[in-house]
Each structure stands twice: as structure tokens, then as C-alpha cells.
Amino acid sequence: MSYLHLSFYAAFTLSSLGLAFHRTHLISALLCLESMILSIYVALTMWPIQMQASSSTILPILILTFSACEAGTGLALLVASTRTHGSDHLHNFNLLQC
Amino acid sequence: MGTALILNTSTLLTLIIITSPLFTPLLSNTLTASPTHIVRTIKMAFMLSLLPMALFTYSGADTVTLCWEWKLITNFKIPLDFKIDQYSIMFSPIALYVTWSILQFATWYMASEPHITKFFHYLLMFLTAMMILTTANNMFLLFIGWEGVGIMSFLLIGWWFGRAEANTAALQAVLYNRIGDIGLILSMAWLATTTSTWQILPPTEPGTTPTLPLLGLILAATGKSAQFSLHPWLPAAMEGPTPVSALLHSSTMVVAGIFLLIRSHPMLTNNQTALTLCLCLGALSSLFAATCALTQNDIKKIIAFSTSSQLGLMMVTIGLNLPQLAFLHISTHAFFKAMLFLCSGSIIHSMNGEQDIRKMGNLQTALPTTTSCMTIGNLALMGTPFLAGFYSKDPIIESLNTSYLNAWALSLTLLATMFTATYTTRMTLMVQTGPTRVSPVNPTNENDPAIINSITRLAAGSMLAGLLISSFTLPIKTPPMTMPLTTKTTAIIVSILGLILALELLNISNTLTKPKQTPWANFSMTLGYFNPLTHRISSSLSLGNSQKLALSLVDLSWYKKIGPEGIASLQQTITKSSTSMHTGLIKAYLGTFALSTIILILTTTHL
């Protein structure tokens, strides 16, 4: 595949593996999610240009809107859990489970 | 050419003379406008306004004077122009004559008032606004005059503002007038968008004007002239001083609504729906006011309801498509109604502030001039042949009888005419004759030229005005000339019936042991239960509904329940029930995620 395809393919794979393997802090998971969304965004921008399907040009903008909402929700959850649990360590989250 | 010049200049000069006492004190400290000075100014303005009236009577000429134009946009210019036609030319001398007498009377009535000069200035400002209204050629100037008279009415009704009832009455006047103003603004907006001018013109195609702007005008007249649904402010307006009641609420301000309909006659003339609405509304108001006046005990309220009833009669005339006759009734009504108010003012001061007719009696011996003029005024009001009221009231009843019309409106109007005779006779007999029910010590004195001259001047007007005006004006529409004898004498017969009824009732009530409360008497005494019903229900409904709309609907429902809080509560119910099922093995979950990613890499890359 071309170098362009390699770049966002690799970015997506690395971010998803980072999401799976860094289980200490919640914020690292959120950062990996952000980079996944970013690589998808770049891919979606390249696709209509290379396929000459110009009516799909709006698709990356829509994805961007939803990703912004999702990032905001994630950060709100981060703040809320830090308030209740004192930190964002993931292994604290099932301490109060009954 | 010369005629038009004299008409224009004398009318404009009259207007300037009327406003001059208002701004001469601003020019110099030595030029003060004392009440006697103002009376003399108005007398001079009256004499001057006789000139255009004589010229109009001789030549029939009318003019429109354009002073300045507000060039708003290219297509819509608002001129400052005065229409000097038969209505404004005839109205000016009559209004100035009545105002002259009222102001002369007010120099005696308000003599102990510390702010008497301010009072006179308010009356002058009112008169200026009324003159602007009558000489306006377009709706913009008319609206300026309309609002001006409304505001001055508010300030003058609440003159004794220390009294709570006066403040309530002034507020009532302004609110009811405002509801009428909605109609006026509606028709102004329609005129501006459809005809691109604010002048009142006949419809262009030989059809009818759409009913919507005419409904707006009728609503405006209902508010300003106290027709049935927007009437409570007029009896409440009697809280103001008697000169205010005489000037505003009998002769000039309340006829502004009828005057608007007279001016809009070219638009109204073909639209039968609007005319029928005017007819029925006028007949209903006339009868309702006459019914309420039957059991009133306050002398000023009886005269106020009498005014309301005559305004209904004027509305009926508009509904019969006879604007000139309505204007004739406005003119003759101004004389005797103002005189009745001035007589009542003289009586009230002589009784040391007592306004209840049950505490007056036998005033013929104590106040001879006042009571004789009161009798003249009452007879004119009843339509006694050849006094002023006869020349306007009788043709109205005759036209009503001989036209192709509404039997309900006819019967209501005839019943109202009968009640007019009844309550005026009751008032006359209880005030002037019978045993004396006043306290023994009374400052009964009418020996002041201010009272005598003003009241007798208006009495002369009440006797002669009808004859003079109807002799010198040419009717636009042919009056009905032939009718059966009973139809011709309907008004007289009905009034005589009312008079006999009043005499009979007063004879009976002399020997009553206890007062009778029948449903009809209760209806009349509580003014048709209208005031408590509408004042309570309308305010509680609108405030309650607006609270429901603003707080419950918008704030709680739309901003909270359907939005964030509703979704949050929905999610919380599900989350609470599924929390117990979570095992929290994040390592396992994310491990499957990593496994899927590795499998994806291995299978899709071409290794």
C-alpha cells in the first residue's frame, strides 16, 4: 500500500493497542481514543479525494462533530470520577461495587 | 382662492391660539397663564373659529392644508396635513364654545385647588390633542391626537391622585383605551401595507373594503367610545373633577371613536358586515347603559351612563350608513351633556360634596338657575320637540324605523330611548322636587357669574344648536320624508311612555316600606355583573396561563425534561438496574479488543 495508507493504518492500530494495554489511567484511554478518531478522520478525508466521490466530502466534518461531543463526554466522565474516586486510576472503579 | 386662504389661515391661527398659553410661560418669566387668561384665550379662539364656519356655511368649500411631509421612503410619505372639511369646521366652534363655558365654570369649581394653573394647562393640552384628532387628514396625525387624548384623560381622571379609587379609575381608562388602540394600529398597518398611504380613501375597485381593517376601526371605537364590551371605564372616570367629566367624558374625548368611524365612512360604506356589527353593538351598548342608569344613585354616574347610551345611539347611526347624522348628534349632544355635568358640579359644591341623589331634594327653590338649566338639558336629552336633541335624535329614530334593517337593533334602541326618558325624569324629580333630604346647613350658593354665565350659555346652545346646525348644513343623503304617523311619532311616544313610567314608579316608591330586590334590579344595580366578572376572570386567566406557559411548559418541560434531565433520568433507571451485573474485568475486555486488532492486522495485510 502507499505510504499515506500506511500512516493512518499504523496510527489506528497503534492507538487501539495502546487503548488495550495501558490500563493504569483513564486519561490515557481517552487519549488513545482521540488518536483513533484522528486517524479515521484523515482516512475519510483522503477517500473522497482519491475516489473522486466529491459528495462524500462532508463525511469527515460529521465525524469531527461527533468526536468532539464524545471527547467532551469523556472528559466530563473523567472529572466526575476524579471527584468521587480521588484519582483516575482504573482499578478504583470497581471498589464500590456491591 | 381667497376662500381657501381664509379657511386655512383662520383654522391654523385657531390652533395656534389654543396652544399659546402652553408655551408663552416658557418664553418669558413675566408671561404667566392664569386661569382667567386661559378662559379669555379660548373665548378668542372660539370667536375666530366662527369665521371658517360662516365661510363654509356660505360657500360649502373645504380644503386640505399640507404643512410638511415626512419622506420616509420613496413610496410612503407621511404628510402633516389638516383636513378642513365639514366635520372639522363644524366641530371646532362647538368644541371651543363648550370648552369656554367649562373653563369659565372651572375657575369657580376648582378655585380652592392649589394647582389650578396646572389643571388648566392639562385641559388645554387635551383640547390641543382633540383638535389635532379632528383636523387630521391621515391616520398618523389622528393616532397622535388619539394617544394624546388618552394620556390626558389618564392624567385628568387621576387628578386627585391621593384617592385610591381615582387611581384605579385612571388605570382602567388607560387599559381599556389600549385594547381599542390595538384595533387602530391593526387598521393602520393594513392601510400602510395595502394602500401604501395613511389617508382614508374609498376602495379602488367598486367593491367593498375587506372586513379586517374595519374590524380594527370598530374595535378602536369600542375602546374609546365605551361601547358594550369595553365600557366600564366611563362610569369609573367620574372620579375626576366635574370639569374633566364635562369636557372629556361627555363632549369631546368619547366621541373620538365615533369621529374615527365618521372619517372612515368611505371605507365602511359598502361593507354590510361591518355596518351591521356597528348597528348591533351600538344598540346593545345603548340599552345596556340605559338599564344601568335606572338604578344609579350618584348623580354623575347617571349622567355618565346617559353619555354611554347616547354614544351607543351614535354607533347605531354609523351602522345605518348616516355619518352626517351621527356628527349632528355629536354636536348637539355636546351642548346639553356638558351643561348637565356643569349643573351637577354646581349642585355637588352646593351640597358640600354630596353626590347621592337620595340626599338631595327640593333644590328648585335653593338653586333656581342651575335646576332650570338642568331641566332644559334633560328635556333636550329626551328629545323634546324643537330643542337641540330633537333635531338629531328624531331623524335617527325615523331612519332606523324606515330602513331595511335589523328588528332586534330597532327594538333595543327604542327601549333605550324609553329608559332615557325614565332615568332623566327620575334624576330631575329626585334632585329638584319633593321633600328636602339635605342637611340643614349647606353652602348653597350659585350667585357667581362664573357659574351663571357658563351654564346659561350652554343652555342657549342646547336650545338653539340643533335648529341652527340642521338649517345650515346640506344633508348628503336624502332623509326619509314619508312614513306612517305612528312611525313618525315613535320617538315621542316612547319617551312619553318612559316619562309616565318614571312618574308612576316615583309615586309608588314614596310609600314603600322596604326596598325590593328583584333579579332585574340587581342586574341593573351591579351594572350587569360585568365589572367583577371580567376584571377578575380575565386577569386570573391570563396570569395563570402565562405562568403555565413560561414556567411549566418552557422552563420545566422543554428546557429540562425533554433535554438533559429527562435523558439523564431515563439512563439512570437502566444503569441502576444493570450496575449489579457488571463484573469489571477491564483486562479481559480490553484484551479481546487487542486480540481483534491483531487478528485484523494479520488477515488484511498482504504478508
From TrEMBL, chain A:
<dbReference type="GO" id="GO:0016651">
    <property type="term" value="F:oxidoreductase activity, acting on NAD(P)H"/>
</dbReference>
<keyword id="KW-1278">Translocase</keyword>
<dbReference type="InterPro" id="IPR001133">
    <property type="entry name" value="NADH_UbQ_OxRdtase_chain4L/K"/>
</dbReference>
<keyword id="KW-0472">Membrane</keyword>
<dbReference type="GO" id="GO:0098803">
    <property type="term" value="C:respiratory chain complex"/>
</dbReference>
<dbReference type="GO" id="GO:0005743">
    <property type="term" value="C:mitochondrial inner membrane"/>
</dbReference>
<dbReference type="GO" id="GO:0042773">
    <property type="term" value="P:ATP synthesis coupled electron transport"/>
</dbReference>
<keyword id="KW-0679">Respiratory chain</keyword>
<feature type="transmembrane region" description="Helical">
    <location>
        <begin position="61"/>
        <end position="80"/>
    </location>
</feature>
<protein>
    <recommendedName>
        <fullName>NADH-ubiquinone oxidoreductase chain 4L</fullName>
        <ecNumber>7.1.1.2</ecNumber>
    </recommendedName>
</protein>
<keyword id="KW-0249">Electron transport</keyword>
<keyword id="KW-0812">Transmembrane</keyword>
<keyword id="KW-0813">Transport</keyword>
<keyword id="KW-0830">Ubiquinone</keyword>
<keyword id="KW-0496">Mitochondrion</keyword>
<feature type="transmembrane region" description="Helical">
    <location>
        <begin position="6"/>
        <end position="22"/>
    </location>
</feature>
<dbReference type="GO" id="GO:0008137">
    <property type="term" value="F:NADH dehydrogenase (ubiquinone) activity"/>
</dbReference>
<dbReference type="GO" id="GO:0030964">
    <property type="term" value="C:NADH dehydrogenase complex"/>
</dbReference>
<comment type="similarity">
    <text>Belongs to the complex I subunit 4L family.</text>
</comment>
<feature type="transmembrane region" description="Helical">
    <location>
        <begin position="29"/>
        <end position="49"/>
    </location>
</feature>
<keyword id="KW-1133">Transmembrane helix</keyword>
<dbReference type="Pfam" id="PF00420">
    <property type="entry name" value="Oxidored_q2"/>
</dbReference>
TrEMBL record, chain B:
<dbReference type="GO" id="GO:0005743">
    <property type="term" value="C:mitochondrial inner membrane"/>
</dbReference>
<feature type="domain" description="NADH-Ubiquinone oxidoreductase (complex I) chain 5 N-terminal">
    <location>
        <begin position="70"/>
        <end position="120"/>
    </location>
</feature>
<keyword id="KW-0496">Mitochondrion</keyword>
<keyword id="KW-0812">Transmembrane</keyword>
<dbReference type="InterPro" id="IPR001516">
    <property type="entry name" value="Proton_antipo_N"/>
</dbReference>
<comment type="function">
    <text>Core subunit of the mitochondrial membrane respiratory chain NADH dehydrogenase (Complex I) which catalyzes electron transfer from NADH through the respiratory chain, using ubiquinone as an electron acceptor. Essential for the catalytic activity and assembly of complex I.</text>
</comment>
<dbReference type="Pfam" id="PF06455">
    <property type="entry name" value="NADH5_C"/>
</dbReference>
<feature type="transmembrane region" description="Helical">
    <location>
        <begin position="119"/>
        <end position="136"/>
    </location>
</feature>
<keyword id="KW-0813">Transport</keyword>
<keyword id="KW-1133">Transmembrane helix</keyword>
<dbReference type="InterPro" id="IPR003945">
    <property type="entry name" value="NU5C-like"/>
</dbReference>
<feature type="transmembrane region" description="Helical">
    <location>
        <begin position="586"/>
        <end position="605"/>
    </location>
</feature>
<dbReference type="InterPro" id="IPR018393">
    <property type="entry name" value="NADHpl_OxRdtase_5_subgr"/>
</dbReference>
<keyword id="KW-0520">NAD</keyword>
<dbReference type="GO" id="GO:0003954">
    <property type="term" value="F:NADH dehydrogenase activity"/>
</dbReference>
<protein>
    <recommendedName>
        <fullName>NADH-ubiquinone oxidoreductase chain 5</fullName>
        <ecNumber>7.1.1.2</ecNumber>
    </recommendedName>
</protein>
<dbReference type="GO" id="GO:0015990">
    <property type="term" value="P:electron transport coupled proton transport"/>
</dbReference>
<feature type="transmembrane region" description="Helical">
    <location>
        <begin position="142"/>
        <end position="161"/>
    </location>
</feature>
<feature type="transmembrane region" description="Helical">
    <location>
        <begin position="246"/>
        <end position="262"/>
    </location>
</feature>
<keyword id="KW-0472">Membrane</keyword>
<comment type="similarity">
    <text>Belongs to the complex I subunit 5 family.</text>
</comment>
<dbReference type="Pfam" id="PF00662">
    <property type="entry name" value="Proton_antipo_N"/>
</dbReference>
